[in-house]
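dumping the sequnces here before i forget
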Amino acid sequence: MASSATEVARNVSPAETRVGRGRKRWWSLERLTQSAFVLPAMVYLCLFFGYPLAKNIVMSFQNYTTSTFFTGIAPWVGFANYVSVFKDSLFKTTVINTVLFTVGSIAGQFVVGMALALFFKRRFPLSGILRSLLLLPWLLPLIASSSIWKWILDQDSGVLNQTLLFFHIIASPVPWLSSPNFALASVIMVNIWLGIPFNATILYSGLQGVPEELYEAGALDGATGWKAFRYITWPNLRPVVSVVLVLGVVYTLKVLDIILGLTGGGPANATQTLATNSYQQSFVQFSFGTGAAISNILVVTSLVFTLVYLRLNRRAIDE
Amino acid sequence: MKLAKNRQLPYTVLAIVFLAIMLFPVYWMINTSLQPGPSAVNATFIPLHPSFAAYGQAISDQLGNLETSLLIAFGTVILTLVIATPAAYGLAKFKLPFVGAVILALLISQMIPGIVIANSLYTVYVELGLLNSIPGLVLADSSSAIPFAILILYAFMRLIPPSLVEAARVDGAGHWRAFWSIVVPISRNSIITAALFSFLFAWSDFVFALTMTTSNTFRPLSLGIYNYLGSNVQSWAPVMATATLASVPAIILLVFAQRYISAGALGGAVK
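..and the predicted 3d for all of it:
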């Protein structure tokens, strides 16, 4: 049926016949019509990804400031922007913060997400509805979530300190966001809360892909509980786990809303990361050249993990 | 049967307890928004005397911003669908020479931090006069929506049996006719998923709202919330009322469009 339809289509459309016989001409009417479907998207991608990325590279070698907008002059400075970024003592702090923020967030999100995925794998009454409600924190606007947490973590009247004081767990209010000792940990905690739904959902769908027979066969050999997880679930889930972890890194490197909303990078740069610092340089200090240099460092870092992700994802699909 | 159900009950209880912990911040947001006391300390755990006064203040503060955000979000949905739907179909079905490279580029583009794009986009927007404008933010917000939408739609459209489209082509329909009358209706569900996520992306956008605006009069809602946080907050009820208003689309979608949301959550990550 399908092939006979193809046959007819060939007879009707001469343009397609030509393509079908392999005499491809790139300018054929058929090709042009087909390209018209894809062209707007290609143009958009070039303008809003290709061009900005290229321009960032150029800008990072220029002294690009607010006066550039009026004079159009951005003097060429070679590697001066990069040198000043690397020399700045703040750079070391931001890199350490970025690493701590990323590793801490992902470890927390993954462990809790995994526990939840395993928990919801047993079907119980209302499990479907409860599991979908869990997605809510992931769907809220990040800046709305930041405002909620800023209120909850408020030192004087926030509900967290009030509750901890009430139960005499702490003797005096903890400066969750206003002390350099606590701020990064607090921001990580909020980011874990935000990431749990995503991790749980992806891992849950990964668990659905592990064949039930494996558990039945394993149970006969005495592999239940922890042993079943160790020898059946984990090896089968490995590809999904890798993808979730790498995606987690890439998404965490992007985070700006939460940190700016909660602490603005402070106190005393305790929560300043590469992303927030890039923002500060360009949009607070108006030193767009330096901002571009930090942006490029951020892009290269993301790109390394993206390539790892693409490799792993291809392997995950191949398996 | 009944016995089995009873034995499962502890799991349900445990799940509810955990969900209560996870969703407590959302509850606290709504709870605070209903208790516009003179100071923050008076808030109780349950809004015994709920008042909508804070919403009155939130709306009077944010009405213009709310409108701006809605226009941006709908604009982004339209632009994204107009660009992404034909592109996904072309990539999925036309055996174009560069499909693999484009899909790779789309995957990579999703990983690029928004602030990186914003950095150089700002300089372009200054020259083109697109700062503080709805078209400017629609175009910028589409940078997260378009790649996502193309990938979601591409994954679905690859599975459309070629015979369906060919049948229409036999009847003399051109590519656009076949696309419009056959492919679009069949792909309805993935188009809805793409549209809902485009809306959420643009509605929640903060990075571009923050960087592509410079005026006090033109602000999306997310920036309205951020500006509350910037100053020392005296009364949290209007802030939480605004946050609640900003969360309404997410809550509506989770309740009424759950299956599309799950499809998007998985589609965005796995493929």
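Chain B touches chain A through 106 residues (CB under 8 Å).
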